[in-house]
Structure to design on (434 residues):
């Protein structure tokens, strides 16, 4: 079998699929900071897993190198070379043979270097001995990419601090399809339903509508942060954010045309990283335009929400985005699809079924065309549910918010509970008869 065929077979085994994707494992494997990782493997399959994990977005900031030769190669390598932040050793040695070799490796390890051992023996005594010698984690082969990334994540994400916030990237398949409206309404709904802090980052610097939609006119916002991302800290972030409600803040766009906006992917990374360290949820409102930083945000986000109108141009563009994400985000769930402005009278539309089949993605919501509710909410600087809680779109926004956070609507359980309560007296009578 050729190397290309082996790689394809390996990816088929571990790539995201409807049945194979583990949302809980993906949730636990959080982004890894900028560290250096060097791996030394005895087994080719372990090396393939490591290489595959190295290409994941969670390890995109880390520098990963994979070598063959196992612990012997590691010992020889570090005789004259400094050790990285993390050493991963894949070895077939048993405990009696492994421990002396590990002691030799420890003689060359710099202070602060962490070590993960991938072994072949599920032995509690060996595990305890390894921990006594300062090994950070012991994994039993065969390993999988998500389990490996989770183990690395546990070493570098402090469990005593608040977890890193989730980033939701909203993008329209075409300009004018209502992606910003969906983003703002979903973020507001998320803050109201879950009572969790949410920040909207408006990256449409020239024409963003976040300030208008929330009836705010901030003097400063996200442009100042992007201009000098290295200066952004918790204190400066508090000054630049505009609070819209108890749990919702906006990082507003300047919306002026007398200056140029030259955004770098690195600046976006740094700003979003600071924001996500301060709130559980970050909703990034992306403009419809393709650039290196737009692509970077999409590929690095925890969840991607594509808003499309049911016509041919939207279908083509949405498919291009989905195909890119499917190729580049192999260990992540498929993007979420929202079909907006649907069922317009007398307009020829591509059906929901055709849209879903072409993209191989199920839509999490279809929002019907409702000119009155949306135009009135926009002109009032309100969210749709604020203006009209009974609007059908309000329920759709709730569905989107719960779907992208992998939660169930607690309201759905109430009718069943009340039904059981009503039957309780009859159940009691049946028990007495027995």
């Amino acid at each position: 079998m050729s190397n290309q065929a082996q790689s394809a077979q390996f990816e088929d085994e571990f790539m995201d699929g409807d049945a194979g994707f583990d949302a809980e494992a993906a949730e636990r494997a959080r982004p890894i900071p900028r560290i250096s990782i060097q791996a030394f493997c005895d087994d080719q399959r372990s090396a393939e897993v490591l290489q595959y994990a190295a290409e994941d977005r969670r390890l995109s900031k880390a520098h990963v190198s994979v070598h063959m030769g196992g612990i012997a190669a590691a010992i020889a390598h570090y005789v004259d070379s400094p050790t990285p932040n993390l050493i991963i050793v894949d070895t077939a040695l048993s405990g009696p043979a492994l421990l002396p070799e590990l002691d030799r490796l420890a003689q060359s390890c710099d202070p602060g270097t962490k070590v993960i051992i991938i072994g072949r023996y599920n032995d509690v005594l060996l595990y305890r001995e390894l921990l006594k010698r300062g090994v950070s984690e012991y994994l039993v082969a065969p390993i999988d990419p998500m389990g490996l990334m989770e183990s690395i994540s546990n070493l570098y994400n402090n469990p005593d601090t608040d977890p890193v916030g989730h980033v939701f990237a909203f993008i329209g398949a075409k300009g004018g399809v209502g992606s910003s409206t969906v983003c703002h309404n979903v973020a507001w709904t998320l803050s109201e339903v879950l009572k969790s802090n949410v920040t909207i980052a408006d990256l449409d610097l020239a024409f963003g509508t976040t300030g208008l939609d929330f009836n705010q006119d901030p003097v400063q916002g996200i442009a100042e942060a992007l201009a000098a991302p290295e200066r952004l800290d918790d204190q400066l972030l508090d000054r630049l954010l505009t609070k819209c409600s108890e749990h919702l803040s906006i990082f507003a766009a300047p919306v002026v045309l007398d200056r140029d906006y030259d955004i770098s992917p690195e600046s976006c990374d740094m700003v979003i990283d600071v924001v996500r360290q301060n709130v559980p949820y970050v909703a990034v409102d992306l403009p419809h335009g393709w650039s290196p930083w737009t692509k970077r945000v999409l590929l690095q986000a925890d969840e991607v929400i594509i808003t499309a109108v049911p016509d041919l141009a939207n279908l083509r563009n949405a498919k291009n985005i989905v195909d890119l994400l499917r190729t580049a985000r192999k260990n992540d769930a498929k993007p979420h699809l929202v079909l907006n402005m649907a069922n317009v009278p007398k307009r020829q539309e591509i059906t929901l079924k055709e849209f879903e089949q072409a993209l191989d993605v199920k839509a999490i919501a279809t929002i019907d065309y409702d000119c009155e509710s949306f135009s009135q909410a926009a002109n009032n600087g309100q969210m749709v549910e604020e203006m009209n809680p009974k609007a059908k779109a309000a329920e759709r926004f709730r569905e989107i918010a719960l779907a992208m956070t992998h939660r169930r609507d607690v309201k759905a359980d109430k009718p069943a509970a009340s039904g059981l309560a009503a039957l309780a007296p009859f159940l009691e009578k049946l028990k007495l008869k027995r």
